[in-house]
Amino acid sequence: MTLPRLVGILIALSLVGSVECIKGVDPSIEHLYKPIDGRFKCINSDVSIPYSALNDDYCDCPDGTDEPGTSACSSYHHTPQFYCHNEGFFPDKIHLSKVNDGICEEECCDGTDEPAGICPDTCKQRGKQYKVELEHSERIRDKALITKSKYIDSAKKELNRLSSVQQDKTRAIIKAGERELAAKAEVDRLEALSKDALSAKLASPLYKHLLDARSALDDLKKENEAVEADLSHLLDILESLKNSYNPNYQDMGVLAAVKDYNAYIDTRKKRSASNELLSKLQNEDLVNLIVSLDQSSGDKKDDIDSMLFNIEAYLPPTMVDNYRAFKETFVGWLVKFSIIPEPSTQGNASYIQNARKEHKKANDALQKARNGLAKTDAEVAELKSGIRWGPQGEWNALNKECVSQNIAEYTYELCFFDKVTQRQQGRKSGGTSLGKFHSWNEDAGPGSEDFYNLQVYTKGQRCWNGPERSADVEIVCGEYNALIEVEELEKCAYKLLASSPAACHENTRRVHIRHDEL
Amino acid sequence: MRVTFLGILIALFLGIAECVKQNDFKKCQQSSFCRRLRSLSDRKTNSSVWESPYAITRGLEQLGDEAASYTWKLNNRLAPEGIAFDLAVDVLKDGLIRLRVDESGGLYQRYNQTASYILVDQPELMQASSVKITSYDDVDNLAFQTSTNQPMELKVYHNPLNVQLKNAQSGEILVDINGESLLHMEHFRHKDAEDTDNNSAFTWHSEQPFEDPNTDGLWEESFNNKPDSKPKGPEAFTIDINFPSHSHVYGIPEHASPLALPPTDGSSPRRVPYVDDPKPYTEPYRLYNLDVFEYEANSPMALYGSVPLMHAHSPRSSLAVFLLSAAEMWIDVKHPTKESTSTQWISESGIIDLFLIPGPTIEDVFSQYASLTGVSQMPQEFSLGHHQCRWNYFTSKDMLGVVSGYDSIDAPVDVIWLDIEYSDGHKYFMWDKKKFPDPVDMINKIASKGRKTVNIVDPHLSRDDEFYVFNEASDKEVLVKKPDGQSEYEGWCWAGSSSWVDMFNPASWDWWISLFKFDKWKDSTPDLFTWVDMNEPAVFNGPEITMPKDTVFYGGVEHRDLHNINGILFANLTSQALEQRQEKNSRSFVLSRSFFAGSQRFGAVWTGDNLGTWDHLRSATPMNLANNIGGIVFTGADVGGFFGNPQPEYLVRWYQTGAFHPFFRAHAHIDTKRREPYVLDEPYQSIVREVLRLRYSLLPVWYTSFRENTQTGLPILRPQFVVHPSDAGGFDIDDQFYISDSGLLVKPVVHEGAQSVDVYFAGEEPYYDYFTHEISLGSKHKGRRKSFFADLESLPLFIRGGSIIPSRQRARRSASVMSKDPLTLTIALDKNGNANGRLYLDDGHTFDYQDGAFIDRQFTFKSDRRGWTLTSSEIVPGDSYEDGNEVFIERIEVLGLKAPPKEIKVDGRPLEFSWEDGTAASSNKEDTASLLNIKKPLTKIAHDFKIIA
């Protein structure tokens, strides 16, 4: 009785043993490879085959699952991959197409992917090397985590600073509000006094014509802005053409255009912003102006005139003629209607004018204070809520911090949360915008780890005959903030790799290590 | 009214849009010689008494006693006194006729060197004793036999000159030359004598002058403000060639046009499958190798290559004519009747060197033509795999990323390509070390997974003092010269100011070959191969984006005389360079954009910069078929379309089509998005992977096909008329094709959103769906159209009954690691239960096969009353080769048997098999075929075997 039982056990053991030995099978699914009544049941099919046909270098199963250790079923999809045990290192898997193909796979350091004697077992060596690398990267990660905690501290400090700013600003608003109320009261008082006199003036032809002039000025400014915008648009187009024109188009016309553009840029005069002056004229308080006429003597007209003439100096040459015509008419009106100041209203108007100015100042100050507080509130909210700056505010320290790297003929500069720029090496400024900060990785859940692995920069300079440049910045854990790599896999779509301590976590495995550090 | 107006506006707009590209290139009217000589036909039409002025003035003379070589004196009675011509006729060994016309004692010698660069050898002449000559007053009759013993007659009528080739057995006139009285060779003349020549002597005595009275462009002309000084004046010729009993003509690539050449006289073309809306052609077919940016998908315009070979075909016979001229050429095609074809050939310069290729079978035509320009070189086996290219992979890392991208999705690829941006400032040979710091390391890394690298070498050399190739070429004086013949010609290309190597200068040959030697080009390895682009040559600021015709080559020859063979010389020399860079004999791999007749000897070509549009996908099949019947069998097209960002459906259809072109390369423009298979979404990625694997599984078929071409000259891609030459119903079909003699029939799906496709089945055999084994029956008399379901995953592929397909069914990452993989034989029975097949294998990369290191097997499956036998026997005895001895057969599938066998034995050993019920090939029923699956016969492929059931 004992003997048969023992044999039974032995048979069972040997079967278990043979299951374990099935070449290429991942231990976690080895139960699928147990014989059933001496047969192998194809895993994803009802067909079963003699157990001897398993791994016999012929694909029997319609689902290709009977050859886990040979390449015979390599053309089938969804078959389990070949499993290398890699004793001394980590197990890994390869496609069946790579089994017995004469090439030693990196994934199988134990060499089991090829017949014995072809590939050396390098797992021990790999394991050792891995350990060294792991220790090194852990060291770096730990250093980086110290830096990261500093970032977090400084975010806390920033939060403290901001809340005291909030308090200061709240107090300032209260004060500014009081001042505004007082100034308003003064204006109301004075206006009530001179209401009648004023309405007479406002009915005067001069005031009407001032209004006309204002409207003409508005138009002029709009037109100027439009011209400026067109010009700048055209210059952008040309600049973009120059930077990225594509010789593929074999177009001699483009070559000539780029040449002419360079010549134009070299000789172009720098122009002051005429819009500023126009804005000043536009914002002139007309009521005050007409009231102040009362005080004017003969040289007041000269002042206006000289001021109007001065404008010419600020205008682009193309606009001077238009402006001159406009100016002549305007001055003409002033002469034609030769308004005589009324001595009786002079002083009164001046008071009101001053009071209004005071009130406007007070009101502006109040608005500014309120806006300032709103901004600080927003900053606080952002730092507290933890989306943009990270759960602990760790990314705040990188705000606008710039890192750069020389690659091929270019210097690439990444300013976190701001922009990416490409310049010819050696140039300190200018260059081509590869994008402005748009968002963190929107494909990942906000606040997740993946979310903070990628920054997206969009709306860079438009490529010639192509899209606007854009850059995806992958950020990996590293000891320092650094730009590591830039690739342009498709025209105008850049991929950047950067490192930062802010991207490190306690469990981070992937740590950027500079090659010279190993 | 309003609608009409809108219509006109739209028409105008379209007209303009179309002209943008066309304006860069000449129409016949804008090329003065074409205008002058094409108008002969108009003047003839307007004349009531037109007669050829060319006549024999001295009768037949035989040159020497031995060889069948004859001459006549010829004259144009309208030409000035003293102008004379020689007519020479050679009867070649295989029964081909070579007919040459040259001016005798002219002011200059017409260019006559084209043949020396293009023909494989000096053609062997027939023994004079084998030609029976009968001369009468006005006609000489030469009777002879072709290599396949067909009796032929060549008749030379004297006045007016008329040459006819006749099938002496059937009495059929095959070719009729100058039957239309359009033959004309412009004699060299003095510029100052122009007036007297033209106005008196050349005026026809009747209402129409013979030569064009419009003498503009006779001595100089310009196009788009680019002048041509024409120092030798007019020297063009034209010849009319009629096929009185042949309804269809094919060939003269390269044009994006239907395979069966539509007429060029504005008459309506026959309907062909590949164009939805056929438009009549009014321009002649042009042969002038050009870099045409965004070419049209249906047009007789010139493209990158030229093969002046035209097939004429009827259900009764096949023949071809080959006009060997390297100058710009235009060809008109008309159909005087439904059953006949007339053509007019117009060439700018050189001698008339016309070969008549008599046939009469289509197989005869191909082998006869191959005796002139040769057969394909046996390709590197890896080059039949899948190629991944892009303008550009920008860095070493980028390149290695492509390799790992393929590995990550378990899809095969053999070659990763580098376009021009790998080079330092487009100074080819010199790598941009900022982006490719260690090219050898990169190439080796790619090679470590059994893959190759190709980079581009263009023939324009940057005129940069720091460019050693340019400096050496300049020192050796092997650069093309300006019209003055002294100073180096400069033009504009990728590299900016550039000069071009003059490959006609023998001094350039060894030098060019030396550039590729490993001790010279240190940044290369035996795993790096070469792509020769822009070799038309493309010159951005030249006339029609090419080189001015008056630039000067070796020996003072003008570019106009040799333009069309400029490109083939680069492919030739580069192919030699790759062969000679190693001591161990190794085959080359060169891809060339420009080509000419004979380019098959130097590597692969492709259809250039196609668009990512459906009509360009459609045009890829007729274009590749036209190249194939022009002898240039190693052809393909940019899979995916070079320009544009196509939809995934389109990409899938492209891969399904390109996988059945001999050269299978995906390529994309620099402005496109990345579209490698590994960036595709599902299900597209999986579909493409399956297509790639299918291609690799059929590599034994492709390799065997190349071997067959080297032996027969028959094309690898075979249009319907080649496989079924007497089935007129298939003559216009150019959207499906057979792969060599394998029995595989492919019908690419090339319409957006297609869910079904019509397939044309000719002949009596059953056709088996490659994937479902469903039988479709052909028809003996009139081919049969059958509709097939063709969703995106379906690829209409069939095996013709009677074929045995060898394949390798194991998915692998590249061709080079498959050499020991076992084979599967798929046997598709004909209605008598028989089948044949062939398998050729060798080491795939050396010339050892020339010394017998190959396996070349014939498989024969024969049914009889008792059962059946499958035998494998040697076609040509070979010694096998190292890996060949390890290759065995792992599976045999037999489709269409009536009943399962009781037992199957090989050498007395019983074999395991399984059986699936189904229809028998002999049953004449359309249903799923029966399948017998024989497991592991394990017979070594190198050995004879006999399997009996």
From TrEMBL, chain A:
It holds the Pfam family PRKCSH-like. Gene3D superfamilies: Mannose-6-phosphate receptor binding domain. Residues 400-506 form the MRH domain. Residues 1-21 form the signal peptide. One of its GO terms (biological process) is N-glycan processing. This is Glucosidase 2 subunit beta. One of its GO terms (cellular component) is glucosidase II complex. Keywords: Coiled coil, Disulfide bond, Endoplasmic reticulum, Signal. InterPro entries: Gtb1-like (IPR039794), Man6P_isomerase_rcpt-bd_dom_sf (IPR009011), MRH_dom (IPR044865), PRKCSH (IPR036607), PRKCSH_N (IPR028146). Residues 210-244, 352-379 form a coiled coil. SUPFAM superfamilies: Mannose 6-phosphate receptor domain.
UniProtKB/TrEMBL annotation, chain B:
SUPFAM superfamilies: (Trans)glycosidases, Galactose mutarotase-like, Glycosyl hydrolase domain. GO terms for molecular function: alpha-glucosidase activity; carbohydrate binding. Residues 1-19 form the signal peptide. The keyword Phosphoprotein does not apply. Residues 377-704 form the Glycoside hydrolase family 31 TIM barrel domain. Residues 87-332 form the Glycoside hydrolase family 31 N-terminal domain. It comes from the Eukaryota. GO terms for biological process: carbohydrate metabolic process; N-glycan processing. Residues 822-874 form the DUF5110 domain. It is found in: Endoplasmic reticulum. Its main location: endoplasmic reticulum. The keyword Secreted does not apply. Residues 713-805 form the Glycosyl hydrolase family 31 C-terminal domain. GO terms for cellular component: glucosidase II complex. Residues 254-276 are annotated as: Disordered. Keywords: Endoplasmic reticulum, Glycoprotein, Glycosidase, Hydrolase, Signal. Pathway: Glycan metabolism; N-glycan metabolism. Belongs to the glycosyl hydrolase 31 family. PANTHER family: ALPHA-GLUCOSIDASE, BCDNA.GH04962. This is Glucosidase II subunit alpha.
